[in-house]
């Protein structure tokens, strides 16, 4: 059961975007940070759910939003901006921050940039891959390290990726931070420890890395060690997909799987481990 408004910590409240769907899980998570009169909001929902704005206003009480931090440009994260900015919920100086801003009124976010809200320090971590402009935010409160992951890591399932090389590097950076709690853009907040005392937040990131690494090994193995059906002119992405994902029958799922294979091949190509000739892939 997802509560539309849920307190995560002294300074962090999750407010659900109320836009559930096949690509957004239970909807987009937005996070209101701070405990004083001027708060920071991470992401804004899709802008099409009136109830979201009611919940946001009720959560704010007498406080106001002074800063909006955006994880990336996708509509379900930025759609609420104009309605929030034109509402009485914001201070006159409320500023929107986004890496690689396209809107001239937005301010850029750079690697390591620090934002302070009451006794919380938010630090920007550039994490491209899901999109080129993707940013995560690290927060420390009472010795607990929170990582607002946007769409890099979700509370469940796997994320859709634009560019796999940068994505894997971003996951590696997130893992190195050893966060205690993940505040994902979709799905449940990840916190606590498993039965073996492993930190779940770290386990989830590690699982993302291992899953992608396993697929990469499988694909490289096909290119290196198996002979294509047509005897030698190389592997089409379709053929590789059939080998790696033999059980997928739904054409939409197969298309998504083939896109994953494509992303891995492009990464291998950029690392000099594979090349293509006339749309057919060969190992280097
Ligand atoms: Zn997204």
UniProtKB/TrEMBL annotation:
<dbReference type="InterPro" id="IPR041516">
    <property type="entry name" value="LACTB2_WH"/>
</dbReference>
<comment type="similarity">
    <text>Belongs to the metallo-beta-lactamase superfamily. Glyoxalase II family.</text>
</comment>
<dbReference type="InterPro" id="IPR001279">
    <property type="entry name" value="Metallo-B-lactamas"/>
</dbReference>
<keyword id="KW-0479">Metal-binding</keyword>
<dbReference type="GO" id="GO:0016787">
    <property type="term" value="F:hydrolase activity"/>
</dbReference>
<dbReference type="InterPro" id="IPR036866">
    <property type="entry name" value="RibonucZ/Hydroxyglut_hydro"/>
</dbReference>
<dbReference type="GO" id="GO:0046872">
    <property type="term" value="F:metal ion binding"/>
</dbReference>
<keyword id="KW-0378">Hydrolase</keyword>
<keyword id="KW-0862">Zinc</keyword>
<dbReference type="Pfam" id="PF17778">
    <property type="entry name" value="WHD_BLACT"/>
</dbReference>
<dbReference type="Pfam" id="PF00753">
    <property type="entry name" value="Lactamase_B"/>
</dbReference>
<dbReference type="GO" id="GO:0044550">
    <property type="term" value="P:secondary metabolite biosynthetic process"/>
</dbReference>
<dbReference type="InterPro" id="IPR047921">
    <property type="entry name" value="LACTB2-like_MBL-fold"/>
</dbReference>
<protein>
    <recommendedName>
        <fullName>Metallo-beta-lactamase domain-containing protein</fullName>
    </recommendedName>
</protein>
<dbReference type="InterPro" id="IPR050662">
    <property type="entry name" value="Sec-metab_biosynth-thioest"/>
</dbReference>
<feature type="domain" description="Metallo-beta-lactamase">
    <location>
        <begin position="27"/>
        <end position="186"/>
    </location>
</feature>
<dbReference type="InterPro" id="IPR036388">
    <property type="entry name" value="WH-like_DNA-bd_sf"/>
</dbReference>
